[in-house]
Amino acid sequence: MVNDNDEQNKRTLRAIILCIVVAMVYTQVFLAPKAKPGVSPKGVGTAAPVVTTGVSPVQVAPPSAPQTAGVISQPSAHPRKADFEAQPVSFVESNLARIAISHLGARIVSYKLKDYKVSLEQPVELDMVDNPDGSVMPLGVYVGNESDEGVRYSLASVNGAPVDSASANVKVAENSEVVLEFKGTLPVGGAITKRVKILANSYLLSVEVQTERAGPSIWLEWAHYYPENQENARMKITHLTYLDGFDKIRHVQLSEIQQGLRDFGTSRWASLGDIYFMATLIPTVAGRNTMLGREGDLYLSRVAGVGSGAKFDLYIGPKDYRTLKFVGNYSLERSIDLGWFSFLALPLLWFLHYLYVFLQNWGLAIIALTLIVKAVLLPLSKASFQSMKKMQELQPEIKALRERIKDPTQLNQETLALYSRKGVNPMGGCFPMLLQIPVFLGLYQALLNSIELRHSPFALWITDLSSPEKLYILGIGVPIMVLLMSASMIVQQWTTPNPSADPAQQKMMMIMPFIFAGMFIIFPMPAGLVLYWLVSNLISIIQQMYMRNAEKGSVYSATLVASCVIFGIGYLLTLI
Q1: Are residues 165 and 234 in the same domain?
Q2: Side by side, which strands form the sheet with 89-93?
């Protein structure tokens, strides 16, 4: 019979492995991002604006009454591409974006980020508006339950100056802003004015809406299309996120979003986005209601303004922590979901950025960060290794006790006495390992959510650290780094003392590298994460070899030399 302490040690070790596997599988299956097509509606973009006059207003079905409390219905029909093309379009170019605003509904029909591309294979500017023909375009206004979707706005002024043409084509001067004022009439009567302010060096926009209608709340809406049946995607919308009135971040899973819009209560802002980009609505008066919902494959967020002169801010751009941190006093950086160990992920993310500033290669920055973290954790790794080694040395004596003593109570007493005489703590190997898990998961989340890795090359065939790596050999994509990582895990397993003589546990530990390899292939991870794991394994192998045989030299000196060699190899690869 196995004694209780040894069995507890086994359960703890299995729990550690299970926690890591579950965290990784959960992230990849439920939270892993998928790529959107990022194609803007045809006929809308940077082409010269089409000016057409004398066109009758688009007919939109009258708004229906709310279905239930907290639910607002959408119009039964939406403008088509031809309807937008038949109306003027105004263009604004800032240092960061190219924005096209159709005068039909004063909706944003294209918002292209100048510093970000759709993909390496499709190197065109990423469009934050990729809604298909016949769906809702963002920047909609609702006065009560009445949409401005069918309103033919006219461009009244630019920066307060009246305009002579039907549309504008404006470039925002450095350190300045442009304000476009649109005027129209709601379908059931009443004038409406929509002012859009665009800054030269910010992803933050401002929208002010004024109406003659007294009483109804004014809502601003953002819409984003995500087809459930989209194949071969990597950056799906994982959450609808909002910061509620109690200063708590809420991530609403797609599976929780039902047809129609429902009131989610008060909030400071509401956001639609994926792992790297987001569009966030921010009422300038905090504590207003937020509505989230869907219409088919179209996901909607809507926030309420105050009175007949509602004001809103919008952030439309990358989920870069440093950028979000200093955009107003909105706590937008909290939209980046870094998991339970964000208190570790954030400083690691900052440190990674500073390493990149010095090294100018994100792959080298990951290698350097990994080696530094492993060096800092070396005392814990050494304590864990030494404890497991002592436990391994005691296995023959423990086995002899089990063969000689059949009474469980006496066996436990004799085993504890043996541990005491030898100065061994049966949990000594697991506790230092447990302390390292938060660091591992924090670094894992930091790399997984780092937009800096998007489309960033490392070396050779690894051209995008945010995507799975594959070297194509005779037309077959081979994940070379995953295979190397799996091989390193097998070697690392051989150099790690097994604190138990249980053949079942030994077999389980030996097959773990193959399980991880299969998991990495079935659920491909970004190359940056695989690079981190591979480097971590390599330096761990060196450390364990020197800890196993102290005559070889100091493990600290070996770590320093090995780190320099590993980093040097990485640097040489970038030169090839």
Answers
A1: yes
A2: 125-127, 107-117, 97-102, 89-93, 169-171
CATH code at position 213:
2.70.98.90
Contacts of 374 (CB under 8 A, 6+ apart): 381, 536, 539, 540, 543, 559, 563
Could you tell me which residues are beta bridge partners of residue 182? 155, 194
Output Rg (C-alpha) for the chain, integer angstroms.
29
Q: Do residues 360 and 302 share a domain?
A: no
The answer to whether residue 54 sits within a structural domain is no
Identity of residue 191: A
| SS (HEC) of 212-280 | CCCCCCEEEEEEEECCCCCCCCCCCCCEEEEEECCCCEEEEEHHHCCEEEEEEEEEEEEEEECCCEEEE
Residues 347 and 288 in one domain: no
pLDDT tens readout for residues 138-195: 999 988 888 888 899 999 999 988 888 888 899 999 889 999 999 999 888 888 999 9
Closest by alpha carbon to 484, among 541, 446, 419, 413? 541
What are the pLDDT digits (tens) for 368-421?
999 998 888 888 777 777 777 777 667 777 777 777 777 777 777 777 777 767
**One domain, residues 231 and 347:** no
Q: How far is it, in rounded angstroms, from Cα 90 to Cα 50?
A: 9
Residue 270 burial (C-beta neighbours within 10 Å; 0-12, 13-18, 19+): buried
For residue 38, give every residue at least 6 positions away whose Cβ sits within 8 Å of its Cβ, in sequence order, or none: 118, 119, 122, 126, 127, 130
pTM of the model: 0.75
Contact 41, 111 (CB under 8 A): no
Q: Is residue 535 part of a domain?
A: yes
C-alpha 41 chain-centroid distance: 25
- Residue-number span of the structural domain to which 104 is assigned: 71-337
